[in-house]
Description:
The protein is mainly alpha-helical. The chain folds into two domains: 2-136, no CATH class; 143-420, no CATH class. The protein is 82% helix and 1% strand. Strands 1-2 form a two-stranded antiparallel ribbon. A hairpin with a 5-residue loop joins strand 1 and strand 2. Helix 3 (94-109) packs antiparallel against helix 4, helix 9 runs antiparallel to helix 10 (263-294) and helix 13 runs antiparallel to helix 14. The radius of gyration is 28 Å and the shape is elongated. The termini are far apart.
Amino acid sequence: MMTDFSFLKTHTMLIGFCVALGIGLLVGAERERRKEGNDGGKAEGIRTFSIAALLGAVSIVVGGNLLLAVTMLFVGSGALIAYMRTRNDKPGLTTEFALVLTCLLGGLATVDPELSAGVGATLTLLLAARHRLHYFVRKVLTEQEMQDIILFMAIALIVLPVAPNRYLGPFDAINLYSVAKLIVTMMAISSAGYLAMRWLGANDGLPLAGFASGFISSTATVYSMGKRATSNNELIHAAVCGATFSSLASIIQMGIVILLVQPALLKTMAIPLGLGCLAIFLYGLLMLAIGRRQEKHDLNIEIGRAVDLKASVLFALLLSSVLVISAGLNTVWGNSGIYLVAFVTGFADAHSTTASAASLVAAGKIGATQAIVPILLGLSTNTFTKICIAFYSGCKTYAWQVIPGLLAMIAAAWFGAWIVL
């Protein structure tokens, strides 16, 4: 057994050294090409980076973190000397910093080869994409877009992690972490729509962004698309398509939830959910065709800002109010009836209602056909929330065009339930 343990340890160590060498060769090869074109350091190349990575690995194996720190000091000093000799030809410090990081990754490779390999590949991609990144930041991004990116990253990386993840407020219905997460989600959806319009134009970009965002939050997508339609009337049809296809994604997600919780229930729900998907999909195609006929000037459309913090916060407050009301109704009425609970919770989230009903089926408390009505009740009340959100977004024309598709989806789903029942 001791022999087996020794072999396992040696095998793990060998993998770490191989990963370290691979990282050194990969990063070094990229820097060697830069050096050849007088675009990088004149001293550091493929051999230097490979040796630095192996130095890091050997340091951890032989002397642990303390020896690695000494090795890092040695490598850093060498990089500094190389920089002092070539600073007139190459004022940047990219190669020197990359050399130090490669040494660190060599040490990490003996402890966590997968993480080390991932960081090494990322480092190489960053080095190789130098000109593309510089061009994108300097020529493609505007000053306003850069400010929006900084704002989004600040909220996502600073505000969200420190938000308390516990329930408080009336009926213990408010979770500040969930509220912050919803704000970040709203900003992400808005950014996705913005980028899609820049790359594909409004007629193609917003429908695609809406479908993708629907898997995150269809309700938030309806609101985000409404704000874009409010900012520019020429975007109404494209925004309606985005909101419509987000509901298509939401129904697909309901099917995925059922599949994960109770796969047998999916066969019973196939016709109601399938007809609902078909109805909203056909309506989305209709609006897309109308949009292509009427909106022919994508290049002249002002697409607005990537993120809107004020609108995102207001939406989060509105949905939090819905959660408080739903929690209050549940507290007053209790859990006496599955239909009542499904009706109330659906105002906030149709997927939680779907998961609850599927769980009851999995537990044998209700039959598969008995789960159809509560699931569709949750979908119906959630659709009512979306209709209210569409009007709240500020553009009545947008809202009135979204409503027929949502109603057709609900009607088709209930018709499917009538067929099954």
